[in-house]
């Protein structure tokens, strides 16, 4: 089924999915295997409907080795799914999706044949691009972990081992959530740096033009608010009066406050 293409209605737009699950196991297509994890992945695999439903065992049979990923949702998070029972074709999928954030689920038996090659040739897929810290984004599902300890220990910083489906699934969802948090904090720091740059430019503008501090005061409030989120113990007069997380501000006021003021005439 390597040439399978899933047809999706032309008028159906999927949310952007930068997150991908690659699942490698001999038994994915068997009806009595991995029932908990299969029920956790929902998708619109039927091109005649836009209703999101659980993938069936028959769906997984067709998905194994498919060249095109399937759009799924995991805990309401848009993701992509590729399923394999062959380590060779699975390995190629990492090369083809090297720009995505990949969560890799594999059995111990098949993982032994692919993980060493992945770490050797695609280490960047398993490290944070900013901090360079290793991701623990390889999930080994195995009934007898001790049987694989001879090779697992060489890659322990990238691996997590499980012998219960529910434990693996729970950890996977938590790891995705933590990645969102890390990205959000990084975005806040980027925003803070940009606001500080704009403050320098506005200060130069004030030196060249007639005094007008409305825009500068707006930027200073944004800086204080973001710094209060990043460093909640830091006291600042602006943060006390203009906290962007303040629930007492109504929606219209908050939107208006986030806009730069009109330039002084």
Automatic annotation (TrEMBL):
Region called Disordered, residue ranges: 237-265
Domain of life: Eukaryota
Protein source organism: Adineta ricciae
Name of the protein described by the UniProt record: Uncharacterized protein
